[in-house]
Amino acid sequence: MKKTCKYFSCILTLLFVLNAICMNNQVVYASSDVNVYDKFTTLNQWDISNQYDWIIVNGIACNINCTEESTLTLSQSFHTLDRKTLTLRFDLRTINLDSDEYLAVDVYDGQGWIPLQEWNGTVDWKTVDFNLKDYANSELKIRFRAKKDSPFAFIGIDNLTITDRYGTVPAPASLPNIIAGDHWKNHFIHDVKPFWTTDIAMGENGNFPTYREMDGSIPDPIIHEDGTDRSLRYVRMLSRQTYAYAMGYLLTGDEELLKLSKKGCNWIKNHGKDNVNGGWYMTLNQDGTPANPNEDKDAQNLSYTAMGFGSYYFVTRDEAMENEVLGIRDLMFNKYWDATNERMMDGLDYTLTNEIDLRNDNAYELVAALDNINAYMLIVQPVLRDYTRRNQFLSDMQTLSDSMIKHFYQDGIFWGTSGNKGIYDGKDHNDFGHSLKTYWMMLQLDKRLPDHPYHALLTEGDNSVNKWVNLAYDDNYGRWAQYPTSQTTHNEDGVSWWVYCEEDQLTATLNLASQDYSSILENTLDNWRTDFVDTVYGNNRGIFDGVQRDGSGHNWPADSTSKAWHWKNAYHETEHALIMYIIGRQMEGKNVELYFAVPESQKETFIAKPYMYEGKEVNREYLHTFEVDGQQLRKVKVTFTDVY
């Protein structure tokens, strides 16, 4: 009977894997940086309790035992006492496991096996992380335990890594108060949010105005003396504001912000899409009609169009918004991707048939590739419903990263265009903001790639990311600089808000592992609060768009739109507050708590992530339901630890 049960279980396993799970096509590279990386093409690295208990099907290790617990133990053990970080990471899926059926993972701590976690029921493909530093010993081992009685059940694992390249380190004994996480949640609530939740800022039904004066009012006159029509709605700015509301909810649980985010999604979806020629418009009139139906459509704007949809999906798992993100990704790679030259085109004309060179310089734009990763891919990739799509996005981001290295990387800098490499003038995106953002995006991507292909480029040698963070810091004033003027010097005439944000965010991310940057962050974060928060114009605060080297302002007139214009709104300042909260809590050794809102049927199964970071989920608190655009959503507070 046992053999018969195993036979049917094996057949069903094959069917599940081939038909229901989808093929895993992730590319594998060899790398000495990874202690263990197993894509499960064989089980040669594993000891099996019974040779019939585990098999490989399409690159997935599948358990086919029926009645008895079976184990799959990594043959190799590790001396880990001298490791600064140590992380176990793998993908898993279970289907139809009863209460007495399970998949479990254990670690051997030198004295005995310690259970890490157990799963039963149905768990769709998900990636899990475990911090193994607390179990360090001279012979650390890993094993899986599985038991399933039903031939209709399934247990599978894939893409296992054990690495000392990324992970969490213990909280420091002391930490500057300004780094504390709750400080940054309060900063968002009191300094950022008010300017973006006035009646004027919220517009009507997601029609958010792009331009506003220093006190938040509509510009008067609406047509500026330079001819700028300040009634226009830039789709990228509608999307960025939609993002800010979604991330504000993620940070605070403020339900009104999530409702605003959905309104923004709806307005963009209903008015921003070009249903005649395909793609998305770049600018709209105040009434939602296209300002110029024949306007070119560049890749950067298309990426930011996806940002609002992606952020709302990340929080809610709204399938319609996910479909918009997937559609934009497919448009990007079907129309804008130049496979011959391995680069993303600057843009296309309004018919999506003719390439546009934005600067007429016969060069490529860094942001055409970079902002795909930054605006939507990195945040949605691990939570997409379809496992195949998750792998596709992961592969896409690696393709884009390889393209950025090929065309824009030189002398340790990611230059703004392929034609202006080596020009230290701060123009055409040759600044710390774009270069360090590229480092940051690739760093977060590298943590997800099992072989960590970018680790050496990012962290080793004379041109590592650490060199550029240190160069970007103006230690004479305790603030960030805008751009390098040589390999060893930076500008001395101030910095814009968004570059400052990117510099803080990357540095804080690096500080999670090294703890070398706390003193720098103590200065830059304190000066952010002092310099950039508006306490002058009205009562709604908000963030200035730049300061001089010593932190003084630019003497903005009251009718200036420098706090809300066609390249500035709530996006960067909201992300800055969110990331400083997440990293601050982790640095304090405290839990990170974030808010989601999902359909009732998904409250236990949806994949939750601490924004673009990796981490371990330790608790879900199911709060009340509330309505967003006619849909009832369950508010869920998710708690994370070991964020990196």
User: How many strand segments?
Assistant: 27
Q: What's the domain count?
A: 3
Briefly note the structural class of the backbone: alpha+beta
Q: Strand share of the residues?
A: 15-25%
- What best-fitting shape do the alpha-carbon axes yield? globular
Quick check: average pLDDT? 94
Which stretches of 5+ consecutive residues score pLDDT under 50?
1-34
Helix content bin: 25-40%
Number of helices: 15
- C-alpha-based Rg, rounded: 25 Å
CATH fold label of the largest domain: Glycosyltransferase
Distance between the termini: 48 Å
Largest sheet: number of strands, sense, barrel closure:
6 strands, antiparallel
CATH architecture of the largest domain: Alpha/alpha barrel
Description:
By secondary structure, the protein is of the alpha+beta class. The protein has three domains: 2-163, Sandwich (Jelly Rolls), CATH 2.60.120; 177-588, Alpha/alpha barrel (Glycosyltransferase); 595-641, no CATH class. It is 35% helix and 20% strand. Strands 1, 3, 4, 6, 9 and 11 form a six-stranded antiparallel beta sheet that branches. The longest helix has 22 residues, at 387-408. Residues 1-34 have low confidence and may be disordered. InterPro entries: 6-hairpin_glycosidase_sf (IPR008928), 6hp_glycosidase-like_sf (IPR012341), AGE/CE (IPR010819).
